[in-house]
User: What shape does this take?
Amino acid sequence: MQSNTSRSDWRFTVILAFTILLPCLYGFGGKFLEFIHIFRGNTDGMFAVTPIVNYLLASLGFFCMLAWATMRGMFHDIEAPKNTFWETEEWLDHRETETAR
Amino acid sequence: MTNESLTRDVPPNRDLIEERLVVWYFLASIAYLFISMFGGFVMAFQLIRHNPFNGIELLSPGRWRMIHTNAVAYGFIANAFLGNLHWIVPRLTLRPVLSRPLSYLIFGAWQIVVLSTAGGILLGEAQGLEWGETPVWIDPVAQLGLGLVAVNFMAPILKIKGPMYVTLWYFLAAFVWTFLTYAMGNFVPQYFVCGTSAGAVGGLFIHDLVGLFVTPLGWGSMYFFVPILLKKPIWSHGMSMVGFWGLAFFYPLQGIHHFLYTPIPMFLQYGAIVSTIAVEMVVLTVIVNFFGTLKGSSRALATNLPIRWFFTGMVFYAITCAQCALQTTLTFQALIHFTDWVVGHAHLVMFGVFGQWLLGIMTYLFPRLLKTEWASPKLCEWHFWLSAVGLFVMALDLTLAGLFQGWSWAALQPWDASVEISQPFWIVRIFAGIAMFTGQVLFCVNLWKTWQLSPLNVAAVFSGEPSGVSHRTV
Assistant: This one.
């Protein structure tokens, strides 16, 4: 089966993903290390645990979902769903028009 | 799926979509929009010292300001999105929602939640949480309602085999996020943490309500309607995935940027700023994707009204995100905090973006639901221009007012001075509000006239006849 995703599309998506992810990982990593230092040396920083844990739990959930989706092949042919959706919608509209007649 | 298998496996449209419920949700949504606008006017007239209800406690502007915000979020936006979901999810999954009776139960329960919230606020029982003033005794019911919404819509989505379209990713996430966000905001500060920690959670709640409830439902809907109306698939599904997962990982930390300069540790404040910058880039991918789809079809902006609603909302979205980038810098935050800049920003997001999208969706769907064209396309145009221009003037006006207020405070002028310089801006705001209100009145007039032309029996839409699709006896 021919893939709906061209090589240039893939390259563009990957470059964009990394452009966003790498600086953010750097930023968040630094802030997280700061948090650990405060947590160890200063009890005043303790209250920050609630929002941080909230975030980490939510992110962990989404990380698991991302892993599950990848393993299920959801991103194998990443452009395919847009065509499937569009064709199905056309079919639904066509059927509706036919029924109305 | 081939056309043969689609014909064999997909239930007929009347069994797939409960169109009557979509109409009900849209009508409820419009009603709450008017209630919300009334609250906005009460507060606006109070600020220019012409409150017509002075001395009436139940109509006090402080209480109606909360009704204004809650009616928009939970009345107008939530109802419109729920109606929208009843249209989109079955069409995308080719399966009806889990249970129709459950759908009707949720509709009734949600109206009880919203009306109880309004009643509670009027009687002075608001919970001390911005955007979460729902009285504590209604919180568990709202939480249960959100759980049922998730179950009802997730059932058909989870039956899908193979790769999912981006809209469904957004919707799936929204069901989980909204449930968790509501629980976090309404229960954690109320019962489990206090002080600055509760403030930090409150900040997360305020922002997550926008970013994890309305944003995924809004963008998910745009990914559904824009390709249909432009008659071509979205420009890049891969890029839409970057947008979705970027939102998933970066949005939840942003809320603390509402609390810069507070006792919350700087690493958390900076963390929120980094997260905001990350989301700005994510937003850029989404906007590029939609304008990439529009490329070659830009004439649709002039000829297709729903498309114009949608892309106007996207332009407002880009403006709000640019504002966010400014707001999260510490120096700029020092200037605009507590000023009307923030009020302008909130209007730009809630009415300028999500309001425009939802009204655009209604403009597209009402003719399909009522099986007839709009009675007056001219009134549709007026609805659009009055809403869009009115909102733009209001947002611009409040943004400027905020800057003048901030500069007045920074110059250490007395508080009264900032109130005096705000008067012209607050008067302009009233006129902008009147324009927006007039737009909605024209929309309702047009809707009523359209309904008169519809082959559907008006009474059937409100009675027990299935789907309200019984035709008038001619």
Remarks:
- Chain B touches chain A through 64 residues (CB under 8 Å).
- The domain at 298-474 of chain B is CATH 1.20.210.10 (Cytochrome C Oxidase; Chain A).
